[in-house]
Design brief:
24% strand; globular; single chain; alpha/beta; 262 residues; 11 helices; 10 strands
């Protein structure tokens, strides 16, 4: 495995009672890049994510993080190695304030992760850092708001804030734009681009305009197999990709692919 590669899968396979959801997938995510995993519904994207983050065990194949074989590790062990799946591991606590949500994620720095019975004084030392993170993601001045009071898009921003508080080396974003309006999509896109300056990002995303705007490299899955990989300009012209999304190999379908939301 090359030193420049953060995540690598080798011949990754996942079977479910005779159905092969992931079929010999070789994925190589370069360190310091934004890499998108796309494909039509049922392509195997979420299963791949679940395998990489260890929510599922592969039927066969290997998974590496920074050259270390993590194939048989538990999800918590993988998270401690610096791979964090946003919107899953970092789900927010709806009845706590924004500040309290970020402080809980920051507890890992004290070696007291998830010890909710820790004294208030122990947690207060994290306030300055928590406020800084909330400021970084555009939530300054909202520290005392209860998470449940936030509109949907801002809850997603808070979830990214709690993920950043864990100081991940590799962030896996599972459909970060799902259910968002145009304004929120723009805000989250800016946040992902900013976060990616100091870490690696692998994301599954249906909004192809977002993928085109953010991604350095795109891997396209169809029926559990990789059918194309490269920059968006090349992938969007690939006849196999056009056929997978549009049911045709006609190059005239490419503009529709560019606007597709899968």
């Amino acid at each position: 495995m090359e030193p420049s590669v953060a995540i690598e899968t080798q011949s990754l396979v996942k079977d479910f009672k005779g159905f092969r959801a992931v079929d010999s997938v070789n994925l190589s995510v370069r360190r310091g890049t934004i890499h998108a995993l796309i494909g039509p519904n049922g392509a195997g994207k979420t299963t791949c994510f679940n395998l990489i983050t260890k929510f599922l065990q592969p039927t066969s194949g290997r998974i590496y993080l920074n050259g270390q074989d993590i194939t048989r590790l538990a999800p918590a062990s993988v998270a401690r190695l610096g791979l964090v799946r946003s919107f899953q591991i970092s789900a927010t606590f709806p009845h706590l304030t924004l500040l309290e949500n970020v402080r809980i994620a920051l507890q890992r720095q004290l070696g007291t992760s998830f010890h909710f019975w820790r004294s208030e004084a122990s947690l207060n030392q994290l306030n300055d850092r928590a406020i800084q993170i909330l400021d970084d993601v555009g939530l300054a001045g909202s520290e005392t708001l209860v998470a449940a009071e936030l509109p949907y898009g801002r809850k997603r921003v808070l979830e990214i804030a709690t993920t950043l508080a864990l100081e991940p080396e590799v962030m896996l974003l599972d459909e970060p734009m799902a259910g968002m309006g145009r304004e929120d999509i723009g805000r989250i896109s800016q946040l992902i681009r900013k976060a990616a300056k100091s870490r690696t990002v692998l994301m599954v995303e249906h909004n192809l305009s977002v993928v085109a705007d953010l991604s350095d490299t795109i891997t396209v899955l169809a029926r559990g197999r990789v059918i194309a990989e490269g920059p968006y300009a090349a992938v969007s012209q690939n006849p196999q990709v056009i056929e997978a999304y549009m049911g045709t190999t006609d190059a005239e379908a490419t503009p529709a692919l560019r606007g597709a939301h899968g």
